[in-house]
Design a protein that fits this description.
Structural class: mainly alpha
Largest sheet: none
Strand content: under 5%
Number of helices: 6
Distance between the termini: 42 Å
Shape: globular
Helix content: over 70%
Number of strands: 0
Length: 137
């Protein structure tokens, strides 16, 4: 496939997100905030925090994190949230927490097809939300 055809296919794939999915993602952004652009110093801080989180995840492996490890992950994630200007789980009201959970359930239902693969933008959003709320147990 030539480059033009590949670019067209990528554009077509990006257009495949449904209006319902887009509305759900927009609502998540409205609740959690939209990450702000970081300056050079802030980017360095973010990269350092991400490296610390990555090292911690590597040390945990496939096991469940201990309470101390989870506390450390939550603290690092909170620092990232603050850096990017996002709300932390502690800053959400009970109603917002419930709505976020409902949105994730709906997104899971929508994305429950046979494909099994998630595009990079969606995966980045899920990774960010996992960093904010932790992963389901």
């Amino acid at each position: 496939m030539n480059t033009q055809a590949q670019n067209t296919q990528v554009a077509n794939d990006a257009d495949m997100i449904s209006a319902q999915e887009q509305a759900l993602y927009n609502r998540l952004e409205a609740i959690l905030g939209t990450p702000k652009e970081l300056n050079t110093e802030q980017q360095k801080q973010a990269e350092a925090l991400e490296k610390q989180m990555e090292a911690l995840f590597e040390s945990i492996g496939e096991a469940e994190p201990t309470a101390a490890q989870q506390k450390q992950l939550d603290a690092l994630s909170g620092q990232l949230d603050k850096l990017y200007g996002l709300k932390t789980e502690d800053q959400l009201t009970d109603a917002e927490k419930k709505e976020v959970e409902e949105i994730f359930s709906k997104l899971d239902e929508i994305g429950g097809g046979d494909e099994g693969e998630t595009d990079a933008a969606t995966q980045a959003l899920f990774d960010r939300l996992d960093a904010i709320f932790g992963t389901p147990k």
